[in-house]
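If your schedule permits, I should be very grateful for your opinion on a structural question. I have a record of one protein: its chain in single-letter code and its fold written as discrete structure tokens. Would you kindly read the sequence against the tokens and tell me how you understand this chain to fold? Thank you for your consideration; the sequence and its tokens are set out here.


***
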Amino acid sequence: MGEKVVIKVNDNGSYRITGDVELVDAAGNLFETKKSFSLCRCGHSENKPFCDGTHRKIGFESAPRAK
């Protein structure tokens, strides 16, 4: 069994992915990733689907909590 994958929803920021995962586009092409990377959640990154920190510049706010 592989390493457990963790997806963390960062307050006012990205989704942080850690673990051995494959990130695939709609056509089945693989994105090059590392063992830990961040995905854009604000929709304004210039490097989608990856986070480039733009959420800080635009004042993105979202802090959902599990219930």
